[in-house]
UniProtKB/TrEMBL annotation:
Gene3D superfamilies: Vaccinia Virus protein VP39. This is Methyltransferase domain-containing protein. CDD domains: AdoMet_MTases. Residues 21-112 form the Methyltransferase domain. It comes from Rhizopus delemar (strain RA 99-880 / ATCC MYA-4621 / FGSC 9543 / NRRL 43880) (Mucormycosis agent).
Length: 227
């Protein structure tokens, strides 16, 4: 059953009637699969640089393909009524973001909707262990010419690309301490941290041992983050 948090664009009725949707950087395609099941009359396309999405068992209204969203999105101009993209903060550099937004603008139909969801790597009310991790992550992203504060920058970037009628929704999510949403946010944060540990260890030698780092993350998850 789809939850309202799967999208915010005012497209419930068009999705029920049938539109064309792109899930950019779809990953394992959780969002794509949920949406396709909920809106069987719409056509969904998922693209990711790695084929971690299901290639055989999937609804008939989904197609998946591999591609680099930072270089070229392999569709014709004005293809999609709705584009969804989220959590590519650790995958795109400054130049990649410019190319990506230009490509999304190109394949979106005039009058179509695009929805981007990105965090800001600046956590409030976090404990000392989590703070140590966040500072290392912020440093790593900056050193790689990535954008740790992309969530705060998207409005201006979208405007400069040519998008119009932009709405910004800010949400504060207490990690690991606010029901299912906080639990999922913590799992995402932990997954990113584990993947970037070798790089973050160059900024913080305490992160060098993988087993110690996993134990450290578990202790971080017990810190009360929301006052």
């Amino acid at each position: 059953m789809m939850t309202i948090n799967n999208f915010h664009a005012p497209l419930h009725q068009p999705l029920e009637q049938g539109i064309t949707v792109l899930d950019s950087a779809c990953g394992p395609a959780t969002w794509t699969l949920e949406m396709a099941k909920t809106f069987p009359n719409s056509s969904f396309y998922g693209i990711d640089i790695s084929s971690v999405f299901p290639e055989n068992i999937k609804p008939a209204n989904i197609e998946f393909l591999t591609g680099n969203i930072a270089k070229s999105i392999p569709f014709e101009d004005n293809t999609f009524d709705y584009i969804h993209q989220r959590l590519v903060i650790v995958g795109l550099t400054e130049i990649d973001w410019q190319n990506n937004l230009a490509e999304l603008y190109r394949v979106l139909k005039p009058g179509g909707y695009i929805e981007l969801v990105e965090p800001v790597v600046e956590l409030e009310h976090c404990g000392p262990l989590t703070r140590q991790n966040v500072e290392a992550l912020h440093s790593v992203l900056t050193s790689r010419n990535m954008c740790p504060n992309i969530g705060q920058e998207l409005h201006d970037r979208l405007l400069s690309t040519g998008f119009e009628n932009i709405t910004v929704i800010h949400k504060q999510i207490p990690m690991n301490h606010s029901g299912k949403t906080g639990e999922l946010w913590w799992q995402d944060f932990k997954h990113v941290s584990l993947n970037l540990r070798p790089v973050m260890a160059k900024k913080n030698p305490a992160f060098e041992d993988p087993h110690q780092f996993e134990a450290y993350l578990e202790k971080s998850g017990l810190e009360y983050l929301a006052k």
